[in-house]
Amino acid sequence: MPVLPRIIHAVALFAINAPFPAHSQTGETSSQATVGRDSPTIGRDSPTLEDLSQTPLPDIIVDGMVDGMVEPTHDKPAVSDATFGSQRAGSAVGSRTLWSLSERFARCSIKWGMSDTGPLRSALDGAINGAKQRFWQERFIGLHSTCAQDPALAREIGVASFGDSHDPIYYDRGAMIVRSLNIFAPNLSLTKQQTSDPAVQARFNIRETPLARYRLPVDRQYFEMAVCFVRLKPELAVRLISLTEDNAIKKTEAKIVNGTPICTGGARNVYFDAVQFRMYIADAVYRWAVAAKSVDSLIPIQ
Fold first, then answer.
1. 109: CB partners within 8 A, 6+ apart
2. Structure pTM?
3. From 162's CA, which of 1, 16, 27, 268 has a CA 20 to 30 Å away?
């Protein structure tokens, strides 16, 4: 009974590299799915929450559907060396560079036994892109500004890293989630039996539907796809979070996508930014784990 995001047909797009427009969507309608290129932006010049609330997005629903409902009609894997090397997903160098800065911040600021986890919990467990969640993410970065690329900028606008064409807010949040999983849930186990459990799915829906209401459309699209990938390949998804070697990361990402054609509508080719893919998988893993454990957060109160 996998999650089938409503927006998935033959399109899979995971790139946060363009600074604008905020509501860009993919125009792909062929059997090639590009996980990369267009980008939502939730910086200070983005639409207000009031603007976003005028067009409510549909609920995230974990539906009871038969596994393997969408089967690929071709022998070639959707993710291969050719798709990994494509520029269709944007600048891999720029993405990796920004990620390394965000990851450095997360490693410096998030540690077991840290004195106050309240701001971190509010940043990761709040309604994504909502006023409170954005405030606490910026606040957490400001409180740990000495760990950031530019301490003064971190205190002023709450970003730990910055680049020419990628939105750092996503990278900072993604690095914080990956680090939190590795620090606070280092022995995390997530199985398909758990993600198929109606009780777990119900808890997931109850928690995540309101928490996703402020996500921008493209961000929500990527998140829902990641929810689908993790639902069907939870063990691989958890493994991906702990990996650090690039080749191992790419191989695991390929296994996840190639083993879940239902999540991409059976697309013939799937292109994506490997860094961003891992960020969204981590986001979905965190939320599935919270539902599986029936807790409010994976981050302890300290």
1. 140, 141, 144, 147
2. 0.78
3. 27
